[in-house]
Amino acid sequence: MTEPRVVYLTRNVFVAGRPPDVTYNPRSDRQQETEVRAYIGQPGKALSVSGPTKSGKTVLIERILPPAEAIWMQGSDLTSADVFWARIIDWLGLYDALEVSTQVATQSGRRNAVTVGVPKVVSYTGEQTDGGGSTASIKKGRRRNPADVAREGLTTLPVPIVVDDFHYVPDDVKRDIARAIKSVLPITHVIMIAVPHEAFEAVRREPDMTGRVWNLEIERWSVEELKYIARKGFEVLDIDDPDERVGARLAEYSYGAPFLMQQLCYDLATANGVLETGPRAVSLDAPDGDWEAFLQRIAKRSVPDVFQKLLKGPNPRGQQRIERVLSGGVRTDIYGAVLHAIALTGPKTTIRQQEIVQILESELVDAAPKGQNVSSALGHMAHIAEESRGTGDAALAFKDEVVHLLDPFLAFFLRWGTWLK
User: Fold this and answer.
1) Among 100, 284, 309, 313, which is least packed, fewest CB within 10 Å?
2) What mean pLDDT comes out for the span 25-43?
3) Same domain, yes or no, for 290 and 398?
4) What's the domain count of the chain?
5) In terms of domains, do 137 and 193 share one?
6) Claim to verify: residue 54 and residue 75 sit in the same structural domain
């Protein structure tokens, strides 16, 4: 008997922004899942998970500890330790109020009902009847310490706690959150997810935490790991990709970010009319065979916040910058020219300064800036990126004459955005 044909929807195969199912890559060679499971097997420790933006940190943890099996909370929501405890209490369905009720029988004459008391503290309700009988009820209530309630609940049901985007916890609250985390480690597991490794310093600095914080660093994805996403998705959607030519191309354009790879695969499939598994195999290509136009369309959707700051450069303090004319006739200054040169090296995330200088020599109509001028501009841009980093990693770094594009979305936009006109 022929097995029924399974139809997959493209939107459920290539998923950007939430955990994928069909195209999930466990990256088994890196033993990331093994590390997380080993941590869960030992009590008394916290686990910090760090790595580049959109590198699959949350997806990895959610795959092992879905929201139904762990208490998930967002770092940006933790405006105080009370919020931390309240989230635990709510998930466990506990109550932080205690009420005691007492009934008293008395003798009296006429019928009467009275309620006396302060809400949430003491209330008295009495009822009298002419027949000589009455009943009275006294209720007393008080609120319990939320931290005590939460810890007692976790002692009974030690559900793991996951704090996503830990780097968004306000700085003036991190110490209190760190102490709250420390107090529950003897009871349950706590996993903290953040972009920069240093986001967890508040926890590590707590007394007696030495050796009690494990670190798992998620590395940027290789082209082969990204190709896996296309391979698994194309397989269930019945898309033909000989020698994985399309998958490899999309992986190169994704700059080591699975989020971007999922998005590119989805956009290319739907642009070719593949909304679900079809009756016959199909091949993919860029719309009208124009890969550049396809990628530019995706790049236009969002401009990284730091981009305009990098393009503008530092405040010139009234000095007029030298105008640079590119071979295509576009006029800009040294910052626009350097960003243009970086874009032409793509898809790369690590570029040597000398490579940028060589591109400028061929791209600029007039004399190209000297190496020291390029180095100065790159240093200023790295400083701007550092100042604009917020609570995450800087989007761009410059060290030892090497530029590092740390934000895959910035790298993608520089390469394919039509920003230089």
Assistant:
1) 100
2) 95
3) no
4) 4
5) no
6) yes
Residues 280-292: tens digit of each pLDDT? 899 999 998 999 9
pLDDT for the residue 140:
53
Q: How many CB atoms lie within 10 A of CB 294?
A: 20
DSSP string, 137-149: EEEEEEEPPHHHH
Let me know how many helices (H) and strands (E) the chain has, helices first: 16, 16
Q: Which residue has the tokens 């967890």?
A: 200
Q: Quick check: 256 pLDDT over 70?
A: yes
- List the domain range (segments joined by +) for residue 362: 305-416
Higher pLDDT, residue 5 or 214: 214
Q: Strand 239-240 and strand 282-283: pairing? A: parallel
Ranges 122-136, 175-189, 197-211, most confident: 175-189
Asked whether residue 19 is assigned to any structural domain, the reply reads: no
Residue 381: is it exposed, middle or buried by C-beta count within 10 angstroms (0-12/13-18/19+)?
A: buried
Which residue in 168, 167, 138, 151 sits closest to 49, CA to CA? 167
User: Within this chain, do residues 82 and 210 fall inside the same structural domain, yes or no?
Assistant: yes
Identify the domain boundary among 266, 299, 332: 299
- The CA–CA distances, whole Å, from 274 to 8, 189, 251, 370 equal 10, 43, 19, 50
Percent of the chain with pLDDT over 70: 88
Residue in this structure with the two tokens 């914080």, named with its chain if needed: 213
Q: Length of the chain in residues, anyone?
A: 421
Give CA–CA dist 46/169, Å, rounded.
17
d(Cα 401, Cα 411) in Å, to the nearest integer? 18
pLDDT 10s digits, 125-136: 444 455 555 555
Chain centroid, CA 113 distance in Å: 58
